[in-house]
Here is the input.
Amino acid sequence: MNLRIENLGVELDGFALKEVNLELEKGDFCALMGPTGAGKSVLLEALVGLVPLKTGEIYLDGKPLSGLPPEKRGISIVYQDYALFPHLSVRDNIAYGLRFRKVGRSDLRMAELLSRLGLEALLDRFPSTLSGGEQQRVALARALVIEPEILLLDEPLSALDPNFRQDLRRHLKDLHGVGGTTFLLVTHDFPEALSLARHAAVMVNGRIEQAGKIEDIFLHPVSPLVADFVGMKNLFAVEFSETSARIKGLEIELGRKPDTERGYIAIRPEDLVLSREPLSSSMRNSFAARVREVRSHGFYAEIDLEINRLVFTAVVTSRALLDLKPQPGTSLHLAFKATAVHLIG
Amino acid sequence: MRKESFLWLALASSFLVLLFILVPLLRMVSAPSLAALRATIIDPEVLRSLWLSLYTGISAALICFVFGTPLAWLLARSEFRGKRVVEAIVDLPIVIPHPVVGIALLGLVGKNFWFGRLLHEFGLRLVGNPLGIIMVMTFVGLPFYLQSAKEGFASVPPRLEHVARSLGASMFTTFFTVTFPLARRAILSGIIMCCARAISEFGAVVIIAYHPMIAPVLMFERFQSYGLKYSQPVAVWLIVVCLLLFVSLRLVGRGPERTRSGGAR
Here is the structure.
């Protein structure tokens, strides 16, 4: 076990982490998820050594970390707001940690990171002249060049524009594949976690509510809180062929060709369009489905529908409910656009 | 309409305030003839007092810098019980009347007190000595340095320090490679403010050391003995020397990186 958090408790002004237990294997990519204010960032600060522990212990390769100052832990951190040193050039920012940590062949390591992250041309620039995406790549290089045991990523994507976000996600995946560094990514975006991480922990109110393989958390949430958080309904493990996804004899048109052979697709419940008769529209996916259950929530209602023993959940307005008059056992038509299908993995 | 008349009132009042500051200064600067200014600057007594003011003021500012910086950092970076009290203590030299400062310090280092006698035993004379002047100036200048340096440190995001620590830098190295360079401008401002305050001190210095005479004391003496006309040229030269000092400090402190990083996003 690379990182082991045992019964960790932290108490700050008006906030506490309680009985946090988590284990990460070497080279793992773990997502730490949870709603805002759940204590994810506090846990990271405890790992770095910035807040004192009230109870418990953190072990890195079996060695207890409490009592070790941040500079002796081998845990790097990348913040959402990049936290680059504004008075240093990109080159000096990235090389900052190298004078403290003796890293073998550091120039090779540096060169590799620069080329993987496409930073060679920016070395003499100052942080204030870089875009958000560039700054976050510099922050990643700075954290990784010293070959840390653990890399903590505190919502590194959430301050970026969507197109930069995709780009940086690719870089994260790429970089994780290279070294032996264990990644711990804080995010409140479940699809992001699903696309990057192998394991995940969901934190709610200062406690770890559930930890394990990320698919397990999604498919078998242990509590309503977790179920609510991972909220993306209609997630299916599928096999891809050409531009479609196959599951249980159902063929779902994606409108684009995925890179992999198998993965997950997800469709937001509000993107499913229901009708009594088949719609003649531009929507590429249209199926006949049987209503299983209708749950009314005042202004809107959730309807579970079954196609080939596959359950879809749709959200409709109460007004639409009056028109559709769905009864369990009756059939409706379900349609969605190819672009409404999210590819994950 | 009412909004407009309010604006006029604000402008008129601002104008009045600026006039109030500038007119006396301009009047004083323009009062002495060039001949009088020339005669004054070659007067050895004037030169001695200007030089004394300058080096005691700078020394006081440097002492504040060396000993005040850690306190400023603590005040900016840590929360502790009694912090308000410490901040109030630090501000005391601003609110205490200047002669009171002089009398308080004289009571400590004068011969009527064991501490003063002890210093005398060791050959350390403060009363009537440049060292005493520096002591007084440090006392009155400290709050100005501390305030500015504290704000400078507080404006450095703690996250930058956290990152530096996580990358392997000790607290010491983090301070010298991240915190201090980023607070540099505020620290320099603090040094200049402190130095300006130190050089302008009269009431407290005059009690500890009438002689040797710093420039304000010399001005006062010439005013008392000979009248306004003889103190004005000294005042003009003191202003000139101070302006030169502060402008050159600012230029030195500008540093190179502002121009290098000033490109477009």
Chain A has two domains: 3-229, 235-344. The CA atoms of residues 49 and 68 of chain A lie 7 Å apart. The longest strand of chain A covers residues 285-296.
